[in-house]
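Collaborator request, handled under Task 6.
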Amino acid sequence: MIDYRLLVKDKEAIKTLYKANEWTHYIDDLTKLMNAFDHSLDALGAYDGDKLVGLVRVVGDGNTIIYVQDILVLPDYQRQGIGRTLMTRILGKYSDVRQIVLTTDNTDKQKGFYESLGFKQYTDLNLVGYYYIKK
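Structure tokens returned to the collaborator:
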């Protein structure tokens, strides 16, 4: 049974989760990633016993906007509703927030997942989004 609770900042468990999902750029500087967790608005973990199997991390002010920064589930635990539960719990916790934003890969799998939760693409809302990556 999966237990959902406030994420315990366990550096090795977090590193394992990011590495298993091939988000290796994040763990190139683990100190920076741990600092990011320290400065996040919220982070919820999914646990199988003591094992971290998923997480969602949000940043923002918690009143007018939140940004879903990271959502990850260990590959062996995917397709079991864990990501959906993490997202629905965060969306429920911040149900009074007007703007909930995220950026994800442009794949049918990602689009299907987020659209099933009620997210819309910017173009569907007659909006444009910009992304600046420091080189």
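The cover message to the collaborator said: "The mean pLDDT is 95. The chain has one domain: 2-102. Please let us know whether this matches your experimental observations."
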